[in-house]
Design brief:
The protein has 208 residues and is an alpha+beta fold. It has a domain of 86 residues: RNA-binding S4 domain (Structural Genomics Hypothetical 15.5 Kd Protein In mrcA-pckA Intergenic Region, Chain A), CATH 3.10.290.10. Helices cover 45% and strands 9% of the residues. It contains eleven helices and five strands; from the N terminus they run H-H-H-H-H-H-H-H-E-E-E-H-H-E-E-H. It has a five-stranded antiparallel beta sheet with strand order 2-1-3-5-4. A hairpin with a 2-residue loop joins strand 4 and strand 5. Helix 4 crosses helix 11.
Length: 208
Amino acid sequence: MARYTGPKFKIDRREGVNLFLKGKRSSSGKHPIDRKGAVPPGQHGQRLLRKRRSDFGMQLREKQKVKRMYGILEKQFRRYFKNASKEKGNTGTALMRTLETRLDNVVYRVGFAPSRAAARQLVTHGHTLLNDKKVDIPSQCVKVGDIITLTPKAQKLSSVPESIKAGGEDIVPWLRRKALVGNVVKLPQSEDVEAIANEQLIVEFYSR
């Protein structure tokens, strides 16, 4: 299945929540959910909103929210869950930790890009350095102590300083940034992730 490239706000309305697909720092104006409410797109949106969801339906929607927020395809997401289920402790927490430590997400989190999609593009185009080595694999996970920065060419892109300026000091607690250097100071926990989905329902979905 190909990655979705259509209107980002349409996905937000389908899931009933702002997934920040255009980033928190988007200057495009008020979000459609603020104006129209969490009504699914299409002529039958109101009817879908009133329809009572089954347990499976609720589990599916929670899974879809997280998949779409991080821009992950189903096959890869299922593999992430399988690996998380083998770890000690809470499977949902392990899953979210893996997603948060993806390199493309970290590039977004430290403010080098306005959205995860833009961050993924920076990585795939070879503009990202991990511990002074060029890395072009968005799914590579970072570790505590890793240093993330950009190539000299990327640092000259107008979008980078604009993103940093717009984001200010809005950086998650498990990361640090000084100028154009990001540092992983600890692994993320559940409280470090946007509470847009119920992780337990995702675990139940894949445990059926």
